Amino acid sequence: MRTKFSGNSAKLAIVTSAILLAATPSSSQTVSDASVPQTGLDIPEELTIFGQNDPNVRRATALVNGDIITGTDVDHRLALIVAANGGQVSKEERERLRTQVLSNLIDETLQIQEAEANEIVISNGEIEQTFNQVAQQNFKQDVSAFDAFLRTKGSSTDTLKRQIKGELAWSRLLRRNIQPFINVGDEEVNAIIERLNASKGTTEYRIGEIYMSAAPEAAEQVAVNMRKILDQIRQGGSFVAYARQFSEASTAATGGDLGWVRPAQLPQSLADAAIQMQVGQVVGPIEVPGGFSILYLIDQRQILTADPRNAVLSLKQLSISFSPGTTEAQATTKAAQFATATQNIKGCGAANEVAASIGAQIVDNDQVRLRDLPGPLQNTVAQLPIGQASQPFGSVTDGVRVLILCGRDNPQSAAAPSFDQIMSQLENERVNKRAQIYLRDLRRDAIIDYN
Q1: For residues 352 and 421, what is the distance between their CA atoms, to the nearest angstrom?
Q2: What SS3 state is found at 88?
Q3: Fold entry, domain 71-305+428-445
Q4: Which of 5, 284, 326, 445 might form a disulfide with 322, Cβ 3.0–4.6 angstroms?
Q5: Contacts (Cβ under 8 Å, ≥6 apart) of 313
Q6: H or E stretch including 168?
């Protein structure tokens, strides 16, 4: 079957079409004026659908302007998402994701084709360099171990490298064809700097976003699918992985990270949600102009105000472990003895002696940022006087630990973002809007053969 691929709901266009067709009876049906969606298309109110769409017939492959997407391509990309969610994806969710993955691969193919048409070439060396960075930063593994990991998950290095190629090609294309024509005036930047200074002490947020566009007639189905994504994330799925695969914003390449923003910089619906969220919370779908968003509050801070969580600490950690077979009661008794001994430590200078007397292991680190500690420990350690030990924490499996605060370097007052940083942010926002239009036009003009 050959069709023009179009529509504002990019990632969900195929699944939405299938659902709408399957739900439409084959006999004629009259629709009242009040319920007719304003599509701008010349569609009669009384119509007949010739034939029925069979939802059990899968079209696993596609030719995109002559370039093939195979069933294996879809399987391997889907496996990346499933792996990022610890394999905990239901059969129903897996089938839904499969349809979305095919849509993503179509977009990716269009982006690579457009870059090549503009004589943009991504070298194998660039792809390998980025691939190695992904292996190191996200999986802490060398390339060979990462390759083996992907194969055990039913994926491959080729599918990840193809995604990397698509992201690099699209980014370079935007820098060439769009960014030079984006104008941000000095007066706009200076106005933002003035507002920042006037807003000193108010809150700004570091936000992750998954955005999907939705035409009015497809809005309900898009929202349903986004709620399913939200459920997967709340059950432990990777927000970054879903953002990279499904978000239509240019921030998809960075896992949906919008960076630090103030409520006034966001659409009103997103701003209203952000100010009510707790750090680590994920909410959505939230309706925004043209579609829906899922928000993840990564962090928050006070504008131009020193964040106490940026304090650099000098810490000693004392720990004891439990031998196999230790009962909860035995561990509790030993932990109580450990707590008594460590609470009597008089300064870090005495810590080594106390550790030796109770058989505890000791680790020193004098470059720990307070914000890098687990959330429950941040408040505890922030309130510790120099030389005092925290309350014990741990488990029978992991052992019990205390932290002793040896020193604290408090942060200096936070500086406002530079003129160039603000200029760059404004440019990126405008490039992102133009990029969405660019991709929409590519979809509209594409010839797709589904097999």
Answers
A1: 46
A2: coil
A3: Chitinase A; domain 3 (3.10.50)
A4: 326
A5: 366, 368, 369, 370, 381, 405, 407, 408, 409
A6: helix 157-177
| Cβ neighbours, 10 Å, residue 207 | 25
Tokens of 222: 């898009």
The pair of structure tokens assigned to 331 is: 């561990």
Q: Convert the pLDDT of each residue in 3-21 to its tens digit.
A: 333 333 333 332 222 222 2
Q: Left (φ > 0), alpha (ψ -120 to 50) or beta: where does 326 sit? A: beta
Which residue, among 207, 174, 162, has the nearest Cα to 72 in the 3D structure? 162
Interhelix angle 419-445/91-117, nearest 10 degrees: 100
Residue type, 353: E
Fill in the amino acid letter for 401: R
Q: Distance between CA atoms of 65 and 449, rounded to whole angstroms?
A: 8
- Residues linked to residue 286 through DSSP beta bridges, in sequence order: 293
The tens digit of pLDDT for each residue in 122-178 reads: 999 999 888 888 777 766 667 777 888 888 888 888 888 998 999 899 989 998 988
Beta carbons of 427 and 179 less than 8 angstroms apart: yes
Alpha-carbon torsion (346, 352, 357, 360), positive or negative: positive
Going by C-beta distance under 8 Å and a sequence separation of 6 or more, which residues neighbour residue 358? 320, 337, 338, 341
Domains 71-305+428-445 and 308-409 are alike in CATH topology: yes
Per-residue CA distances from 268 to 21, 176, 265, 350 (Å):
34, 32, 9, 55
E strands, 254-328, are 257-261, 282-288, 291-302, 312-320
pLDDT at 95: 78
User: What fold does the segment set 308-409 form as a domain?
Assistant: Chitinase A; domain 3 (3.10.50)
CB atoms within 10 A of CB 337: 12
